[in-house]
Amino acid sequence: MSRLTIDRHRLMQDIHHTAQWGEGERWGQNPTEVGMARLALSDADKLVRDWFIETTEALGCRVHFDAMGNIFAIRPGKREGPPTAMGSHLDTQPAGGRYDGILGVLAGVAVLRAVHEAGLETEYPLCVVDWTNEEGARFPQCMMASAVWAGVTSIDTAHAVASVDDGEVTVGSELARIGYRGDTAAHHTATPLAAHFELHIEQGPILEAAGQRIGAVQGVQAMRWFTITVTGRDSHTGATNFENRADAMLAAAKMIVRSHQVATQFQGLASTGLLTVHPGSTNTVPGVVTFSLDLRADADPKMDAMEAALRADFAAIAAGTETFTDSCTCGRGCAVSWQTTARAPVARFDDDCLRCIEEGAEDLFGAAQAAALTRRMYSGAGHDSVHTSTRVPTAMIFVPCRDGVTHNPTEYTAPEDCGNGAQVLLNAVLRFDAARKA
Amino acid sequence: MSRLTIDRHRLMQDIHHTAQWGEGERWGQNPTEVGMARLALSDADKLVRDWFIETTEALGCRVHFDAMGNIFAIRPGKREGPPTAMGSHLDTQPAGGRYDGILGVLAGVAVLRAVHEAGLETEYPLCVVDWTNEEGARFPQCMMASAVWAGVTSIDTAHAVASVDDGEVTVGSELARIGYRGDTAAHHTATPLAAHFELHIEQGPILEAAGQRIGAVQGVQAMRWFTITVTGRDSHTGATNFENRADAMLAAAKMIVRSHQVATQFQGLASTGLLTVHPGSTNTVPGVVTFSLDLRADADPKMDAMEAALRADFAAIAAGTETFTDSCTCGRGCAVSWQTTARAPVARFDDDCLRCIEEGAEDLFGAAQAAALTRRMYSGAGHDSVHTSTRVPTAMIFVPCRDGVTHNPTEYTAPEDCGNGAQVLLNAVLRFDAARKA
């Protein structure tokens, strides 16, 4: 087993250097205390992609991108065959941080650099993947392009998804505009991988609270995304009494409250992050309200039951027959419709990959320390690894993030944790590669 | 008493002719079954203003506009003195109809036409007013320019109000852009009026249900508009449990539901027609939600009590200490702030003006029929007459509107009712003018 070392200083330089493309909100005095706003397939996304290709080519990679703009930087090994991959994403939320996704890709670059500078020839090729539109912020379908690669979403469906702020702008048109709509099919048969390792910040408080440094992630909770449309009737706010209204905003507000009540009962999660009101005037009771509903649960049957309960309750709220909300009528009632925009079952990751990660942590910390500093855990957030895990052995590495805060400009992971994560990624990938030889 | 007659056909022609400026959503097969989208100070608003000036000048009026763009078309009488005015507005909601406001101004034009074509010289001048931004849709302060005229709102405050979709665009900049920022002060001392009569569609179901044709409106319920801002913290929808969230959207949804519960208890009204979510992503628990709150009540003390109750309840919801909503936490809690954007107390209209309207209805229907076809009533909606009534004798005339529907493209008032309203307006104004002679 070669013992290579990550250039931790260079990794942090890459994180802060590439932040120039899509710089977001400043939150502190330090030059690095700036959030990110690098929406998928924006001009800023194109620029960081160009940098990624140039950098990995200089590290001896052959680079190609597929019809979804997923970029695969492949460094040849002794033999031909599907590469052992390290993947995550370079896009961010509209008010996001510097680490979510970005750390996973740039740590992959740091692994390539360590291997390249040592002149190491791996058994099989290594690969770093930048997956397109993991966030689903600008184009509201998260983990989009890994879902296409895994065969869960069709390429046509993905290309047709429109931007949240301009219905004329689609994933397909923006891929073409920035020059990242490739000729290779976006499919696991066209770019096969042997495994997928993803380093990511935890986005939760568990590691920090426990004083631990590495999470070996064994799975991800189930998620479903919906767009809910409530249709009532526009009317005058002063002249229309409650009985004569069909108030889409009131019905939507009741549904949002109800989704939290039901999710609490099921020990799942419900969230609404997007909401639009039509026609949009203080003086008009809204005729149409559209909102996003993001559901999470740690078991698929629980998710099924939670969705079924909410469908029944939303229908009752729209019809005005609900009894959850005292003394407050939706008047003549509204119509409600559901559109599913993303769904992923509970993911269970691969035991061999998890062992490579845990042994990689032992390589870093020593066996005794590693037991104290490492834990197996589940992820609350979805990741591209959810989709790769349906096709190839997959596991994830978590590092702590301050106060569990993410999707926020103040998101922060200490340089030491970034470096630890990258080192464990390197160790795990080399262990997986060595095992393939046998 | 001169007996003049409205040219009803010409009135309907004017309604449909001027609808070309700001045509909205089509809702039927008939060429006139199209709604309106003539937002205040838009290009369409400029075009209909130009038409209004050209048309009233041709009917012998001197026309000027003030610093708020209120247009006064004044037809001289036998003596100098403040004119007897007929006013309403030509702006509409973003998805509005052809009658709300428009009927009142164009009926005023029809009155001028009847007087002009008869060669009648009134005792004092007559005037038709087009009040700027009554709707408060694009610039969210309703009855804005009549409030400035009455001295309720300062000109600087009104000029500074920004558009709901572009913070750089203000009332002042748009008045200048379309050429309607006049040199005359926007104040009742600069353009004094002797009285204000306003014909308007009812925007409610009462006249239609009672089979009556004319409402003599003796007052308007109180209204207050607020912009509520709820501030929590952006976080990841999948990785952040309910306890660790500060979910501005959930808190806002609870407040909207609560506003309806409290308004129901007070027999008032509460409505939310605008709501924006920041940062706006399915995957991010929103950190900031801003929404409009429109309150109405038929007595000022009731309004005070309702507002006080809601301020206490919203604070409790934000803090997470409320008990209205079972088993659903706002986690770490949010901050809530209130900004008042418009307020009007209960308005009581003038008895002399009301008598002129009721006698005007007798002129039209005959005394026996008029008793059955006319009623005194209150208005649920606010109107420019609320503000004029604080300075000069004021009353309103209502005509039925189908199914009480307004602020909606399908808003409809039958030609017969439009004509009846204009005829009663003519009769009432001539009666008021004649009484001034005495």
Automatic annotation (TrEMBL), chains A, B:
Keywords: Hydrolase. InterPro entries: Amidase_Cbmase, Bact_exopeptidase_dim_dom, Peptidase_M20. PANTHER family: ALLANTOATE AMIDOHYDROLASE, ALLANTOATE DEIMINASE-RELATED. This is N-carbamoyl-L-amino-acid hydrolase. It comes from the Eukaryota. GO terms for molecular function: hydrolase activity, acting on carbon-nitrogen (but not peptide) bonds, in linear amidines. Belongs to the peptidase M20A family. Gene3D superfamilies: 3.30.70.360, Zn peptidases. It holds the Pfam family Peptidase_M20.
